[in-house]
């Protein structure tokens, strides 16, 4: 990633709670707002404003799961002036309200976000387990794996997991019964927008109490039909979008 855009990414991570404007972000890169916005999208796959929203929502998720701070205070703490705007954006992005998301802690530390609201709670769970294959020599690199329900592929991921090393056996727990697509994304040795590899398999059918096993081959992401094309090029600069 270009040094100027790395500065903007780092600036957003450090100052996400502030009302950052396009001019503010341009100053971080010492570029005009227009030039910065164009380069930012080329390098990350998203406009700066959407990247800022993603950072804010990921921090909100962390606070909801790991603290007892009220939802209203979390909303203010991640840069939203209105709890209504925060709740609407959070629900649209993750499929559940902030309050529902917080109640997921009842499922334990391995549970990740629901994609269908509280109706998921009535499902019996299975799991998806797999290994990754890549030919770029980066078996030590981490990979972000997501499961998408077949009925809503192309929408938000329902289950996510971070794999420490590409060679590791991984498992996505708490997967509801049904048909699922599996998607994975990782860094590779190329530069710029080509520095991401991805893989996709499915659909696979998950049944209660069963572990479905899959193999996923990682290739340059532009060759792969993925369920979330925007998330792939962004994952290397904001890994929490795939982390559990």
TrEMBL record:
Ranges for domain HTH araC/xylS-type: 6-104
Keywords (alphabetical) are:
DNA-binding, Transcription, Transcription regulation
- What is an example of a Pfam family matching this protein? HTH_18
GO terms of molecular function: DNA-binding transcription factor activity; sequence-specific DNA binding
Q: What is this protein called?
A: HTH araC/xylS-type domain-containing protein
UniProt organism field: Streptomyces pactum
